[in-house]
Write a structure and sequence with these properties.
alpha+beta, 6 helices, 4 strands, 7% strand, disordered C terminus
Length: 219
């Protein structure tokens, strides 16, 4: 076991796709601000321009998926290393944006609850409610479930076990097929300029989808 700040730094090293600022280098606005319509509108406009879509729901879905992925990596990774998830208090965890790509800021890492409590209950639940003005909440919860499994895949078997536990949360249960892990809803990224489908996309045949990966598009 290691202390929480050391754990956060180790998770950052294991997930270099996502920028994370820790300790004295951290700052940013509280992530609770992401629920504000004016903040979301600005981020959606920035991201929509970058990925080539005029559909707000596509940009909102892409933004939510990327945000959920960052949160799950932090929560699952720290829970694996310390036995408890990082505290993801929306009034304490910070964020900043560059062209719609979010960077998280964690100035004083401290232990929280389980990954599902921190990610679903404290962070994504209120956010999905706020963003439901742009897109159906079911699509966002499909994103959250997909991101949890994706984070477990990136972090390894121990974290995947924690991800499976988190996926039993009532808001995530049945969002993925238990055998194929394919989603019950679409993230809509195929409608963006880069296009392509995910490996768990419900719109493609189980075999033979085009395999284009959105992971290279920093969300």
């Amino acid at each position: 076991m290691c202390d929480m700040e050391a754990a956060v730094r180790l998770v950052r090293d294991r997930t270099p796709t996502y920028v994370l600022r820790v300790g004295a280098e951290a700052g940013g606005r509280p992530t609770s601000d992401l629920r504000r319509p004016d903040v979301t509108t600005a981020l959606v406009d920035e991201l929509g321009h970058r990925i080539g879509t005029g559909e707000a729901r596509v940009a909102v879905s892409t933004l939510f998926l990327g945000y959920a992925a960052r949160l799950w990596c932090l929560a699952l990774g720290t829970a694996e290393l310390t036995g408890r998830s990082l505290d993801l208090d929306p009034d304490v965890l910070g964020w900043s944006s560059s062209a719609g790509t979010l960077t998280l800021h964690c100035s004083a890492p401290r232990p929280g609850g389980t990954p599902a409590e921190e990610v679903v209950d404290r962070q994504l639940g209120p956010l999905a409610h706020a963003w439901s003005r742009w897109i159906a909440p079911g699509a966002l919860w499909g994103n959250a479930a997909s991101a949890a499994r994706g984070a477990g895949t990136v972090l390894g078997p121990a974290a995947m076990s924690l991800a499976e536990e988190a996926l039993a949360h009532p808001l995530l249960a049945n969002r993925l097929d238990p055998n194929t892990h394919r989603r019950a809803s679409c993230c809509l990224f195929y409608r963006a300029r880069p296009g392509g489908y995910c490996g768990d996309c419900p719109l493609t045949p189980h075999q033979g989808f085009d395999g284009r990966d959105r992971s290279s598009i920093r969300r």
